[in-house]
Design goal:
The chain is of the alpha/beta class. It has a single domain, classed as Uracil-DNA glycosylase-like domain (Uracil-DNA Glycosylase, subunit E, 3-Layer(aba) Sandwich), CATH 3.40.470.10. 42% of the residues lie in helices and 8% in strands. It contains ten helices and four strands. Strands 2-1-3-4 form a four-stranded parallel sheet. The longest helix has 12 residues. The radius of gyration is 16 Å and the shape is globular. The two termini are 29 Å apart.
Length: 192
């Protein structure tokens, strides 16, 4: 698998994705040889799957604000890649969406990252991304992992999910805005 098109075709042909492919739903990810910043989130929501746009909701608005990038920069730059932990909407659960399917990122992230040789930093948005990429290096919980973000730089930067549901977390952890956001905004130079 040498091209992104080859990888996409392999993802669609994978039996684990057969139901999506039969329904005409392509995998939702964005990769480019020029990518320098990769955003790893959970999985596309229903709206993202329907509109074919990542972070096309209030969470995305907040993430773009944290990064200090416009919608145009966020969606138009080939230097920003999007690799959710699952490239398909996993469905609804009792509260929120179902988690990404096990084994998906393990199978498809490595060939995609290998095809993006200039990646400098991978944003790990939420616990699923942090568990997969940081493994044993994670702290006892998401809060402590994010608080200790400097330990993982420059390759990784763990973040709390920018969901409106996390407003309480952001209020309880005011250090996030003071300490993490300025460093996150410094990553904008990767888009130059």
């Amino acid at each position: 698998m040498t091209t992104f098109e080859d990888i996409q075709q392999a993802i669609m042909a994978d039996p684990m994705n057969e139901d999506y492919t039969k329904r005409g739903i392509p995998p939702l990810f964005k990769a480019s040889e020029e990518a320098r910043l990769v955003i790893v989130g959970q999985a596309p929501g229903r709206k993202a799957e329907e509109t074919r746009l990542f972070w096309n909701d209030p969470s995305g608005d907040r993430l773009r604000e944290w990064l200090d990038v416009t919608r145009e920069e966020f969606y138009g730059s080939e230097k920003i890649a999007q690799l959710p932990m699952d490239f398909y909407f996993p469905g609804k659960a009792k509260s929120g969406d179902k988690p990404p399917r096990k084994g998906f990122a393990e199978k498809w992230h490595p060939p995609l990252l290998e095809a993006m040789p200039d990646v400098k930093t991978i944003l790990l948005v939420g616990s699923y991304a942090q568990k997969y990429y940081l493994g044993e290096r994670r702290k006892e919980n998401l809060t402590e992992t994010v608080r200790n973000f400097r330990e993982y730089l420059p390759r990784f930067m763990p973040l709390v999910h920018p969901s409106p549901l996390n407003i309480g977390w952001l209020k309880r952890n005011s250090w996030f805005e003071r300490e993490v956001i300025p460093v996150l905004r410094e990553l904008k130079h990767l888009l130059d």
